[in-house]
Amino acid sequence: MLLEVIATCVQDAITAEHSGADRLELITAFTEGGLTPGIGMVQEVVRAVQIPVHVMVRPHSRSFIYDAWDIATMVAEIKAIRSTGAAGIVLGALTEDGMIDERALEQMLAASGSLQVTFHRAFDELKDQMSGLEVLKQYAPVTRILTSGGKPKACDAVPRIHQLVEAAQDSHIRILAGSGLSRAMIRDFVEQTGVSEVHFGTSVRYGQSALAPIHPEELRRVAAALQQLRESAK
């Protein structure tokens, strides 16, 4: 059971690591769903922590449909991120008809080198998530999918997330569940969906605000709850 936590600055990253996070998703513009942070921020976060840092690659928040200029920007960002020692990147691209943009994806993956790749919640805007999963299975660098099962909150999509977990079992892809998860629900959610990785954002921040710092005590409580699940699974 792995706990990924959103970080937006160096202090977030340090607090998250010290409070039990197993991995970071580093972003800026939290209130816009996350955009690519500056390369200086990426460098400093990678230097400051020992846990893996996965960096958002998203040039704007208008949509997940990208033109040639957007794709060129994302490829340039990926190359820069590779130079920092980050462990992974978080990306996604869709066509106008609600399918995975394989042309854009292939250009970005060609620049990713050995970075792990998470396909982010653009996945939740697909017309057919199960077909989308089958497409992503064809791409070895894509190691996980961040999804709320097509709903605003993952807890409202338990059957779909369970279905995705089952469908991904014969592949290299893991389902990373996120959006709206909280400590109170996490045990039931994990047991019902079968996910092995969860993603936390605002619920481990003061006042559950995207603009507030990480609340270390709340994050420790979440990490402890997940540790209990690990131990009970042995």
TrEMBL record:
GO function terms (MF aspect): copper ion binding
Protein name as annotated: PF03932 family protein CutC
One of the record's GO cellular component terms: cytoplasm
Domain of life: Bacteria
The family this protein is said to belong to: Belongs to the CutC family.
Location of this chain's protein in the cell: Cytoplasm
One Pfam family here: CutC
Species per Swiss-Prot/TrEMBL record: Paenibacillus campinasensis
Record carries keyword tRNA processing: no
